[in-house]
Amino acid sequence: MSRRAGREHERAVARLASSYAAIPVGEPVRLAKPTTNLFRARSAPDAPGLDVSGLTGVLEVHDGPDGAWADVQGMCTYEDLVDETLAHGLLPLVVPQLRTITLGGAVTGLGIESTSFRNGLPHESVLEMDVFTGAGEVVTTRPGDGLFDAFPNSYGSLGYATRLRIRLERAPTYVALQHVRCDDLGLLVKAIDEIAASGELDGEPVFGLDGVAFAPGEYYLTVAHATDRIALPARVPQNDASVDPDWPSDYTGQQVYYRSIQQRPVDLLTIHDYLWRWDTDWFWCSGAFGAQHPLVRRLWPRRLRRSDVYMRLLRLDHRFGIADRLDRRARRPARERVIQDIEVPVERLPEFLDWFDAEVGMRPVWLCPLVSTGSTTEGGSTTESGSTAERGSTIGRPWTAYPLEPGRTYVNVGFWGTVHVGPERDEAPLNRAIEAKVHQLGGHKSLYSEAYYDRETFDRLYHGDALAEVKRRHDPDDRLTSLYDKAVARQ
Fold first, then answer.
1. For 102, which DSSP code?
2. Does the N-terminal peptide bond of residue 364 adopt cis geometry, omega within 30 degrees of 0?
3. Which of 447, 446, 213 is nearest to 349 (CA)?
4. Chain CA centroid to CA 174, Å
5. Cis (ω within 30 of 0) for the bond into 248?
6. What is the pLDDT of residues 460-484, one digit of tens each?
7. Domain count, the chain
8. CA gap 81, 50 in Å, rounded
9. Considering the domain boundaries, does residue 25 fall inside one?
10. What is the pLDDT of residues 386-398, one digit of tens each?
């Protein structure tokens, strides 16, 4: 890190501390930032938020014989982070799908993408981080520390990351895709399990793995291979020509990525476009705003085809009740917002999807395999030079607040939309049923959206007692809102 970057970072942390001190005791502490990827309502703040304006950049990218890593400020978006690392031919080990997700947000709030079957979750590539705690001080914490292990899924209840050192990996030039249709869920599960265990398909390394369930009996598994040339890997069935003249494909224009999964058995994208393939249409959610209609799409500026724009539109709809008014006028039942990401063990995926089809009926849904490495100090301790060795296949302990079993294959199921439920809408019957089913199947649910657990159940599922112990140590005056109050009570 250059001296100038270090001084600017220190000044930014000082501004953060000053803004924290200015918040009256007893008032909620929140970040003052222009974007959010949370979907849970919360009470309106009366006090100013934390000043994080100077914590949005990449401090250093290191690429040497001792490994590749980056020092990154906590409010740096993945869009800015990727732009910086790609200039060095490197990538974060996991890049969540939406451009404005911040690195600190992905670590304290969880993140996932197609490389998670081999690299785990974003917080599992963190080597060390500086956390601004409820005590008003910056603590440097590393794998194996109580604060480090409890930080993932804590959503600011233990503090805010100001700097994170993360491992990087080599970035390919292109990513070749094979969209494999599976009509049988058992075959889909078998394929996921085998690829997650070996990291290969037919002897060839797999770069990314995810899928989409479009309808009962129509499932696609997208197998991504890294390549540095405009051609498909030898094992992938070829088109009429081995090179498509339109490659690499561009889904920022008239074409929509998720529709291509059903239409193209093979495809090729630049690594940049592969990382943001879902963002342009926020998966399939841009259809709610007409952005997938050919005429509307032609008129909609490309620079505004992004998830954060759709998020702002969605919040306007939620604020003014536009969809509710239209439903009442058309005499349609009231809608329940069903926006969740859950994880179930891969072998329980058929049971969950069968239940989901019968009880919720929302499609398509995203499928993303992941294998957590857990938290460990073995192979992950910082050397005197500041570098960190690869953890390799070392399996550690479950993370405190999101206790997936390390080394076990799970599948993230993401579903985002609304379902007509009628007068029971305010009781959230579908969301409550999803919570019950997920945990019956030995899974877990992310907390970025609405949650309805009672306190006892919540503490059991997310290790509330262990979180409270860490919070007492680093927030002795209880200035930060607890995880339960953030996620369920929505304070």
1. B
2. yes
3. 213
4. 22
5. yes
6. 999 999 999 999 999 999 999 999 9
7. 1
8. 22
9. yes
10. 333 333 456 788 9
